[in-house]
Queue: 2 jobs
Job 1
Amino acid sequence: MTAPTPIRPTATDAEVCCSRLLAEPLGADDASELAAAFKALADPVRLQLLSLIAVAPGGTACSCDLEEPVGRSQPTVSHHLSILADAGLITKEKIGRWVNCTIVPERLAQLRDLLGT
Amino acid sequence: MTAPTPIRPTATDAEVCCSRLLAEPLGADDASELAAAFKALADPVRLQLLSLIAVAPGGTACSCDLEEPVGRSQPTVSHHLSILADAGLITKEKIGRWVNCTIVPERLAQLRDLLGT
DNA sequence: TCAATGTATCGACAGTTATCGATGAATGCA
DNA sequence: TGCATTCATCGATAACTGTCGATACATTGA
């Protein structure tokens, strides 16, 4: 997860028609990077958090409003939010005592495009 | 993973514009189902296997030809292939002594669409 | 029928992960 | 300054997961 790849690279090559995943044999390094990205989505609590943040006004929600809907403790929610942030799926901004979590739809689109276009 | 949802549902509702994940607060059950699907993709070895199968002629590869490229033992490869099959990402067909694994691109497209359209 | 081969299953083990309570740090308010 | 609140970190624990060797099963060919 180093260089931010473009969201929708203009396909100049005709072979870039389907999935990057399906276009060529995946190397071990690329596979690890990709797997790490999907790992962030591979947990029901994180998917719920992501969904709650996405549907909140402006795609932004306070961390404190997320504990009750997912039914987990504050440390657990904090842990999952950090994982989502590390994966680039949300951003966390500290406003006073609160932490505002904002969805990053471009990142979601990026992962989507890895599965096919 | 019960009812096979259509690959690209015709969006009659204007609100079905982006991601199912981002369209509404995800329930715990839906979240678990979705997470299970992404879990199958959240491992580098499985991604490599998927890639190898996809680029093989006809999108089909013999299980025996996959152990060497991923550098894992036969039981481990068998284990991962079962997970991919359970997730609907590949099908396994026993031909004599061999097991032919075939990619299911529709399933991949399904997961892609869950991230956005 | 027997040996060889491809695959699945079993048992074990190490590493990872989700979870929580307790605690500490940072901020805002009275 | 002191207190309440919000969040992150720590430590512990239970559950899950990836991995392999050993072994059992199934099929083919001699």
Note: Residues 24-114 of chain B form a domain with the Arc Repressor Mutant, subunit A fold (CATH 1.10.10.10).
Job 2
Amino acid sequence: MTTRPDSTTEEPDIGAGTDADAAGRPHTGRRRNEQVRRAILDAVMRLLARADGSPVTVDTIAKEAGVGKQTIYRWWPSKGAVFLDALTDHAVTVVPDADTGTLAHDLEIVIGASYTGAVAPQTAPVLTTLVREAAHDPHLAAMMRDFTAVRRAALHAVLERARARGELAEDADVELMVDQVYGVLWYRLLVGHAPLDETVANRLAATLTAGNAPKESTT
Amino acid sequence: MTTRPDSTTEEPDIGAGTDADAAGRPHTGRRRNEQVRRAILDAVMRLLARADGSPVTVDTIAKEAGVGKQTIYRWWPSKGAVFLDALTDHAVTVVPDADTGTLAHDLEIVIGASYTGAVAPQTAPVLTTLVREAAHDPHLAAMMRDFTAVRRAALHAVLERARARGELAEDADVELMVDQVYGVLWYRLLVGHAPLDETVANRLAATLTAGNAPKESTT
DNA sequence: GATTGTCGAGACTCAGAGTCTCGTCAAGGG
DNA sequence: CCCTTGACGAGACTCTGAGTCTCGACAATC
């Protein structure tokens, strides 16, 4: 029975135990090779970026990275976890918390960033594959919810701020507005029948603003 | 090599060849047993409706229906196809093409019907499982697109009619509005973090109407 | 009663996720 | 210096589930 260093149940949390374990024991034996971690993560992105829908299996990842399969499972609990780690490692984790003073403009920035970030050639295939994997991996599904929660929270903040400024109706359903934005994002990302660019983002920002404006207001 | 009667590539199309094949040959031999078809479809719905997330495999379907596995594959090209057939067979195929004269009201009807229909206890688990299967079955994914296209078209018609009446801005993005409605539907259906009822439907109908109203108009 | 095709049953192939073991290699500690 | 600990590559292995193949029984029609 292999004793996984720390992340038995949840996140990998690699790179932290470079010197000593979280516990007192000073971690004897050979150290974790950071280059191997990088090789695996890079291999995942490389395989996922391949336009042809060639299946990205654990074996192909191991082969592409020049790594043993066990090395992967030593640090990540499942294939999906590797995918998600590769994505978060690669993606710009900076979520723009726009605060320009106008709801419409704030929305344009946040929605625009989300949309263009999602359809970027390096991330789009990763996201779709991730959803595919999450479909039959509850563990990964939970991790994806955490991943998306950050961006949802940013949008939520923008909307609540606007409500405080009086730019939103008192009874506006902020949760529904957030779902409209990300519902459209995932829907179009997965089905791919319509674009997901700044034009769409701006249009959505405008109609969302107009549709949830306070009563008896022209702007 | 078994010769599938007709549906080698696409839809099952069962029950049609009761007397003679589409071709001239009068179909000798033992006939298709309609009760077996029913038993399979019912078994799928029964298994899918089970609240516990017990995996619905082809073997369990065959066992539940008291049927041989080959009998399933004789009439459906894949497991997903059986699921979809069970759904369309069960679901009310009548899509309400509301035409009350007001956009807001029309939307309430169409969106409300879609939302409540989707979360009905008998259909919700079927839909989510279907999407899960479609995630790694392109053939099923195509069938699902056909399935959803009908409802999308109904909503599209309502919106275009409203535009003709002058209830929508000339440059309103009808496609985006449709995606907002169904984006929210699938998003909430799959993540399950927020309700999908008439209240939400009415709220969405109202904000969609207000957000896409023609310029210089109060209503 | 011969032919054609359905049915239930179950063995089978194939793919992919995850596990186990082994021989090797790097970093300490004594 | 060498011994222990744990990382690593390699590859065999188990397990699950989709889809195929074959078989014997049976029903309909000629």
Note: Residues 1-23 of chain B have pLDDT under 50 and may be disordered.
